């Protein structure tokens, strides 16, 4: 994903065009090296609570399906690699 470009354009696209990577913005990390001048996002209270009190699980890996945004979890690297082959073509 291009989180800084999504911040600039106010969208949630997983990919942006080559032309969009050329926009002149201090938040454009394609054009300017290093961190942006300020935050591009902020975790909500539910995310902070989940980090403090994580749900127990045997999952160590995940990916997001590009077409649906659904998370797919895996317990092993082999499972993760299979998921990558299946969903990230």
TrEMBL record:
UniProt key word Lyase: yes
Pfam family, one: YceG
Transmembrane annotation, as ranges: none
Stored PANTHER family: ENDOLYTIC MUREIN TRANSGLYCOSYLASE (PTHR30518)
Species classification: Bacteria, Candidatus Portnoyibacteriota
Organism: Candidatus Portnoybacteria bacterium CG_4_9_14_3_um_filter_40_10
Top-rank taxon: Bacteria
A biological process term (GO) from this entry: cell wall organization
Name the UniProt record assigns to this protein: Endolytic transglycosylase MltG
Keywords carried by this UniProt record: Cell membrane, Cell wall biogenesis/degradation, Lyase, Membrane, Transmembrane, Transmembrane helix
InterPro entries (alphabetical): MLTG-like (IPR003770)
A GO term, aspect molecular function: lyase activity
